[in-house]
DNA sequence: CGTGCCAGGTGCCCT
DNA sequence: AGGGCACTTGGCACG
């Protein structure tokens, strides 16, 4: 692993390092006093101040202040970075086309510039998504209501694809809209669009009812009113708790199997393999990792540490 | 400006520096090989790899790979950072409550750790927002249609606040939904919610029509269909071009004046001070700042630059 | 703090 | 490339 760091470099030195770091495809951080300008989908200006600029080899650029999770300015992946010295300042510019956007960062002073080679390791596993909620429902449709039978996922309609489509015990068509968290009015509108679209499909008996069910952990009062106005229903349901890391493999596999891969078609009978309705068998945590006092005697990796503070 | 940097520190050294940097309220970057775990609103795991961890004094934490604008993992502002050495790894943990969330980053190796003092300079000026589009319409309502008269902004309805509410030349109620960019079906649904809500207000003549107009630069085909189904209209309009930086002050002031500050009430007559309808007088750019070849002779700031590369 | 909504949203997947 | 939508959306403003 290679890290190159310049402390309070001249603009020209910073420029050289930036250009070679661009060539190497390094991840770059620049900390210094700068002003920022953006022009593209919108336009913005930011006065002088100390910020952290991150330049990624995929073309992303981030300008971070000491606050917020969101960068104060940025450039999306696919942009190309350029560096130059202009008017006694180090100018870093990131541009892209379609849409045309330009981010310009002008440094009056660079306090630190680092370039590091970064590779791989981006495979993130997430649980608790809407897809997990859908799996849960497909595994056990009775969670929605007794006798509910899903017939398709992502079935297309004139208003867009529906999360889950099916029939209730009496054979009435049912549209499900799934949300992984508490929802407001927009979710009701979304459901309404789909229900209306299905109701108006030409090959459908115009008198046949179409039910709409919003599946979400909870809904706001306003959403509940709108839901009632339209005669829709709410079923309180959340994504399943994440499985215990050790035992998750089997459960995930069975869930995958229950997921109908073919879209707009009938899902196979939910294979009742792992027939524990909600087996929340927690408690297999590694005891060594709970939160204890900060200091701990631990072996240290060999490595000559150097420390410098400037000014 | 102070920057403290450790190169390939031992975990214990990194720990010390982290704790003092927390105390100082510094912005911290840690580059190293780590695995990441998140549990809270959802849950996720990320295997070993080289990443950049940014810890902000406001509690934000960002884990960045070499790709994407969005961090692969993060913690929102308001969290509290902790550091410890556990099982021979440097563990950085960021926690918050309501909702309960924990981000855990475990470093097997720290390549670089930097701490920098950052203050102020977060005043971003943006133009081209929906608010700008609204100003534009309030300044010249005829842009929507001849004779249109706005009577309120953000007027509340049973379905939520409407962007602009008014009457057309014939006295019919009009609901405007503004979008700064091309829109899809959801914008139509949003407009529909407001129109329906207004139409059903008890003090209103049930036979009186309520028009709905979607003001956006453009709309998708599907949105156009849904719009037509509901008998709504689309007016193609964008946020105004950003003013020339030098001349913007006066224009901005007049625009601010035209903005009705009191909500749910009648806006004062648009003061026709700067009565150029669309004075796109571009062309006052500083010629010194266009894109020219990279190298340029420029004065360099004094400052002893040091450069180190590791391994 | 919850509710509602804009955002330069970003990212993913599909056509 | 554009459409449609989920997201640990984030952030803001208002009740």
Automatic annotation (TrEMBL), chains A, B:
Region of interest (Disordered), residue spans: 236-311
Biased composition (Acidic residues): 287-298
Domain Endonuclease NucS C-terminal, first and last residues per copy: 129-252
Record-linked InterPro entries: Endonuclease_NucS (IPR002793), NucS_C (IPR048301), NucS_N (IPR048302), NucS_N_sf (IPR049173), tRNA_endonuc-like_dom_sf (IPR011856)
Keyword terms: Cytoplasm, DNA-binding, Endonuclease, Hydrolase, Nuclease
Span of domain Endonuclease NucS N-terminal PH-like: 27-116
Protein EC: 3.1.-.-
UniProt xrefs under Pfam families: NucS_C, NucS_N
Feature: compositional bias, Basic and acidic residues: 250-274
Cellular component terms per the entry's GO annotation: cytoplasm
Intracellular or extracellular location(s): Cytoplasm
Gene Ontology MF, one: DNA binding
CDD domains, per the entry: NucS-like
Function text: Cleaves both 3' and 5' ssDNA extremities of branched DNA structures.
Family: Belongs to the NucS endonuclease family.
Protein name, entry field: Endonuclease NucS
Encoding gene, per UniProt annotation: nucS
């Amino acid at each position: 692993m290679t890290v190159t760091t310049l402390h309070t470099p001249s603009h020209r030195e910073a420029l050289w390092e930036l250009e070679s770091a661009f060539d190497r495809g390094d991840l770059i951080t620049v900390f210094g006093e700068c002003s920022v300008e953006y022009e593209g989908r919108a336009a913005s200006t930011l006065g002088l101040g100390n910020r952290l600029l991150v330049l990624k080899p995929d073309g992303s650029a981030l300008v971070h202040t000491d606050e917020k999770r969101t960068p104060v300015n940025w450039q999306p992946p696919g942009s190309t970075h350029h560096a130059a010295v202009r008017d006694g300042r180090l100018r870093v510019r990131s541009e892209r086309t379609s849409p045309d956007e330009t981010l310009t960062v002008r440094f009056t002073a660079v306090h630190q510039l680092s370039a590091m080679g970064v590779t791989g390791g981006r495979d993130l596993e997430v649980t608790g998504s809407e897809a997990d909620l859908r799996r849960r429902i497909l595994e056990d449709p009775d969670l929605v209501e007794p006798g509910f039978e899903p017939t398709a996922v992502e079935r297309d309609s004139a208003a867009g694809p529906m999360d889950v489509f099916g029939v209730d015990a009496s054979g009435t068509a049912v549209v499900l809209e799934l949300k992984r968290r508490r929802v407001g009015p927009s979710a009701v509108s979304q459901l309404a669009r789909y229900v209306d679209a299905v109701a108006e499909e030409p090959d459908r008996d115009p008198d046949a009812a179409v039910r709409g069910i919003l599946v979400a952990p909870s809904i706001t009062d306003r959403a509940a009113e709108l839901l009632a106005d339209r005669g829709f229903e709410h079923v309180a349901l959340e994504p399943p708790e994440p499985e215990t890391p050790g035992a998750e493999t089997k459960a995930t596999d069975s869930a995958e199997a229950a997921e109908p891969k073919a879209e707009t078609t009938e899902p196979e009978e939910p294979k009742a393999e792992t027939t524990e309705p909600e087996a929340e068998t927690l408690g297999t945590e590694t005891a060594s990792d709970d939160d204890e006092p900060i200091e701990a005697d631990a072996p240290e990796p060999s490595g000559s540490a150097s420390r410098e503070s400037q000014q």
